[in-house]
Write a structure and sequence with these properties.
Strand order of the largest sheet: 4-5-6-7-8
Number of helices: 4
Radius of gyration: 21 Å
Number of strands: 8
Helix content: 40-55%
Length: 218
């Protein structure tokens, strides 16, 4: 069973704080604003597909008129280059939008005072917040490298001063937990069902890279 309570996230929206089974003191949230952003990005991808189809149709018409000569081959290469450039640009911009929103929300945590959650929430260390922001940038870059569009990049504050960051793409979903003592990163993945698999912060990104690579299947 998941315990649930409603509070406000950094964007002022009511959110559901949940504690998954087997993850005591490891609360995270899903913000409706993030959901709307994901839906907007999906719509953008649909429009991109239509635009690409139009380019392909135009190039096909030109190539057919040139038969199988060198002009037709050249037209196909132009098409591939244009489509690749459009795909990379839209994908990169979409990922940047998600990661920038996450970084901005994390920055807001620096203003948290004792009792920020309405109870006994501990302030979140500025150094831990900066590590979380670094991880967001790092993993966003991994998404770009793999050409994968994340469905969410969502940070969440925890009452004990820790930070959770949710990432999702396709049917894969995972959470990074940065405890307030900042000695390790808790790694939870619904994809492989591993819970409480910690990654030491030293060397931080190098070891985490192996975990992320396993999630991406490479």
């Amino acid at each position: 069973m998941k315990q649930e309570e409603v509070r406000l996230c950094g964007c002022g929206q009511p959110v559901r704080y949940e504690t998954p089974t087997g993850m005591a003191c490891n609360k995270y949230f899903r913000c409706p604003t993030r959901k709307e952003m994901a839906e907007t990005i999906i719509s953008l991808r649909v429009e991109l597909a239509r635009y690409k189809a139009g380019i392909t149709a135009g190039v096909d018409k030109f190539r057919d008129s040139a038969a199988d000569g060198p002009i037709g081959v050249y037209a196909e290469k132009i098409e591939q280059a244009i489509l690749a450039e459009i795909e990379d640009s839209v994908l990169g911009a979409s990922i940047d939008e998600l990661s920038n929103e996450a970084i901005e929300e994390l920055e807001e945590y620096k203003a948290f005072k004792f009792g920020w959650d309405g109870y006994v929430g501990s302030p979140i260390d500025a150094g831990l917040i900066e590590i979380a922001q670094l991880l967001v940038v790092y993993i966003a870059d991994k998404f770009k490298e793999k050409g994968v569009m994340p469905t969410e990049i969502t940070p969440g504050p925890v009452a004990d001063g820790s930070i959770n960051i949710e990432f999702g793409f396709g049917n894969v979903y995972f959470i990074l937990t940065l405890p307030s003592h900042a000695e390790s990163i808790g790694f939870y993945s619904e994809y492989d069902g591993k819970i409480g698999d910690d990654v030491e912060l030293e060397p931080r990104l190098e070891q985490l890279g192996g975990k992320i690579a396993s999630v991406f299947g490479c």
